[in-house]
Every structure is written in C-alpha cells, then in structure tokens.
Amino acid sequence: MGLFSGQFANVVEWEEWNEEMIFWKWTNKEIKKGSRLIIKPGQDAIFLYNGKIEGIFKDDGEYDIESQIIPFLSTLKGFKFGFNSGMRAEVLFVNTKEFTIKWGTKGPIMIPTPQLPGGMPIRANGTANFKVSDYITLIDKIAGVKTEYTVDDVKLRITSMLDQLLMKWISKEGKDMFNLQANAFDISNGIKTDLDMQTSPDGISITGFNIMNFNYPEEVQKMITKNAAQSMVGDVNRYQTISMTDAMADGKLGGGNSTMGNMAEMMMGMSMANQMMGNMGMNNGMNQQQQMQQQQPMQQQPMQQQPMQQQGGNAAVPKFCPNCGTPTNGAKFCSNCGTKLA
After folding, report:
1. What pLDDT is attached to residue 187?
2. For 261, which of 49, 85, 219, 329 could close a Cys bridge (C-beta 3.0–4.6 Å)?
C-alpha cells in the first residue's frame, strides 16, 4: 500500500479567506493521499510540525501534496519513515500584502504649553501601514497560540500606544503648538520608528505612518485662522482691532460660554484697550504739537517790521503795537498795553 491508502483526499487551503486577516491556520485535520494544496495570490503557505516550520511555499497555484510538497518536507517523521496513515500537520497561511489602517485619537491629548496652563487639547488622525516581516518570530509569539490574526488586532495595539507617542514627539524640541501641521513629517517619522520597535518583536514591521490632520479646539482654530488672514492685510493693527471688536460685538469669540473662549476674549479685550489708549496718547501729542505750531506765528508777528503811518508833522506811528500787536488806529499810546508809539 502506498502513502495514505484507503483515505479520502482533502484540500488544504485558506478556507476563511478575508483580506483583513493577517494569517489563518489550517489545523486539526489529516493530510490524506491525493490531497491538494491551493495557494492564492498574495498568500504564503507554511507547513508546521510540532510547532516548527518544515517548509515555506510562496508561489501561488495548486499542488499535489504527495508528489510536489512532501519531497521538500524531508524532516517530517511521518513521511520519512513511510507511515501509511494520514498525518496531522498544520498549515499556516499568511497574507503577504501591506495593510493600511486609519487611526484617530479617541479623545483630546493635553499637550503641555506655556500659553495654556492646563495644556493644549489636540486631536489627530491619519494612516499607518504594516506587513508581516518575520515568519519565525510571528509563529513563535502569535501564531503558536492563535488560529487567526486580523488587522483589527494590530490596529488595537497601535492605537493603544499613539497617545503617548504623539505627546512625546509633539512636545519634543519645542515645536510651534499653533502650526503643528508644518512639523507633521518629523513627528510622523518619529512615531513610525517607535511603533516599529514595539511590533517587530512579533514579526510585524511598520512600513509607514502618516498624520493627515491636527485638530484644535474651535476657539483656538478661529484665532489661528485670523492670524493667517492678518498677513494678507496691510494695516495689521487696524485689522486686528476691527476683528476683535466685531467678534466681541457678535458674541462669537468664545463660541459660547466656554472657559477657553472667555479667557481668549478677556486677553484680546485688554490688548485692544491698551492699543486704543496708546493711539489716544499719540493723537493728543500730535494735537498739542499742531496747536503750538499754529500759535507760534502769532507770537512772532509783533516782532516783524510793520508798516508805519504818519500823523501830521509828528513822528510816524506804527499801525500795530510793537509790544502786543494791537492795532494803534493812529494813537500815540497803545490802548491795550499803554506802550508809547510815537
């Protein structure tokens, strides 16, 4: 009798194929005579015996196990000694593609910042990429005790570490808290490196990490938007004063009764008041200077040479008093200050 005589053939394949599954284990079944192995595109089949890898098959297709697979599994005792009974072996099917997951912070992360004593509440979202990189480690740490492993399992592990990693890399090197998107590339690279260090011991590598958006509280986002708009306006001070006045008049600065909005409104109001006081002081100084300039010619006018008028055969009498500038009307003494005129 040949190998596996008197037994019904079966098909060894990924029966519960799902693109969101990382691996699936064909187990607790006998490999019988005439059995076939089916490997679909994007899959690798790993034959296990007593928990050890006996062979890895990566080319997709359909194979006769006895004639095409067994010759490569020379260390399997059941086949090596020509057992006629079926052999119980495990076949681990691994999804070889690169997986992409979407992530987002479950709640705001309080990032320490001098501007806000309690920290800046920030949310973020983006994508992460990973793939199986080490079959031996994967089997040793995960596949040895699990029959399947899904993308959601890896996603749960990644997201559980994200809050701490985001806080670490956002706070690092004093990045501009109000323009984090400009530093998204550096922050993403730092997080990718840290995540890979955590998942590689399980045979999974992080191949990419991307931050798509940083989301600020509504009040902070409005102020950031206004600051960006100011760079497009010539008279920044005037624009800022008008914007703050409109916001407070409409009751929209704080977006309601939020504490952050009230604090921002109070700070902006004080800034506007100081600016208005400065402008008033400047205007008063200019008005005083103009008044002095207008009065100066009048004070100098009596000192200028004035036309003289004759009074009969006597000495000439000036038309204006040389002391106070009052018209003389031909008199010999000034009617205002009494100065002798002739």
Report:
1. 94
2. 219
**pLDDT at position 195:** 97
Q: State how beta strands 87-88 and 30-31 pair.
A: antiparallel
Other beta carbons within 10 Å of 116: 16
Please state whether the predicted TM-score (pTM) of the whole model is above 0.85: no
Question: Do residue 70 and residue 88 come from a single domain?
Answer: yes
Q: How far apart are CA 237 and CA 55, in angstroms?
A: 74
CA–CA separation, 23 vs 94, rounded Å? 4
- Residue with tokens 């409104």, as numbered in its chain: 265
Q: Which helix (H) or strand (E) holds 11?
A: strand 11-12
Q: Find out whether 158 and 195 touch, Cβ atoms under 8 Å.
A: yes
Angular region, 208: left φ>0, alpha ψ -120 to 50, beta rest: beta
Strand arrangement of the beta sheet that strand 36-39 belongs to: 11-12, 36-39, 61-64
Question: Do 257 and 324 sit in the same domain of this protein?
Answer: no
Six-digit token string for 8? 């019904």
Q: With contact defined as beta carbons under 8 Å apart, do 340 and 321 qualify?
A: no
CATH assignment at residue 109: 3.30.479.30
Using 70 as the pLDDT threshold, list the residues of the chain that sit under it. Answer: 1-9, 74-87, 173-174, 221, 223-315
Based on the number of CB atoms within 10 Å of its own CB, is 244 exposed (0-12), middle (13-18) or buried (19 or more)? buried
CA dist 247 to 73, 156, 257, 263, Å?
77, 42, 14, 14
Tens of pLDDT, residues 186-199: 999 999 999 999 99
Query: Hey, which residues does 64 pair with through a beta bridge?
Result: 36
Q: How far apart are CA 33 and CA 336, in angstroms?
A: 139
Query: Does one domain contain both 147 and 167?
Result: yes
Domain that holds residue 318: 311-342
Whether residue 136 sits in one domain with residue 167? yes
Residue 91 lies in a domain: yes
Q: What's the pLDDT score for residue 100?
A: 97
Give the model's pLDDT for residue 288: 63
